[in-house]
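Morning!

This is the sequence you dropped in the shared folder:
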Amino acid sequence: MRGTLGESDSARETDIKKTQLHTEHSVLAALRKRYEKRANANPEWMFLDHVRNRAGHDATRTLDAMALGLWPSRGMELQGFEVKVSLADFRRELETPEKMDAFAHVLDRFWIVAPAGVVPVAEIPATWGSWRLSLTAPYARKRPPLCCERGAPIYLASCWFR
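The structure's back. Tokens below.
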């Protein structure tokens, strides 16, 4: 099992070496690839990076990425992502909850996305999820609960399909 307690030192060292290969840009590229898959000719998700919490000069925070589900039959979730490539960066995120709070009212789910071995799952708040990035692709490690009202994603998706 990946990332469990009691994993060998060599497995941890391999994870540490893997994290050195990732930057915010490479993690966002992997997320974009995962969310921009298409079924037939129709996109399932709309993926945006570096999304501000408000328009223009009123913006105070930036979320690393958002993905909006475009199919009503699959829930049309609006998911937010914060990329962390170091443990120190993740711990700074925990110390400044107002950053996530600026987006919490519109997101259905919030994820921390990090290379394998960077973020201890036990330190992730109960309302946040975790994507662990291997060398090839991200995978969900801890799924967050659904956390907001459903009006915003449905409206945004209807604007997208004009």
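Headline: The helical segments are 9-19, 24-35, 87-95, 98-104, 151-160.

More detail when I'm at my desk.
O.
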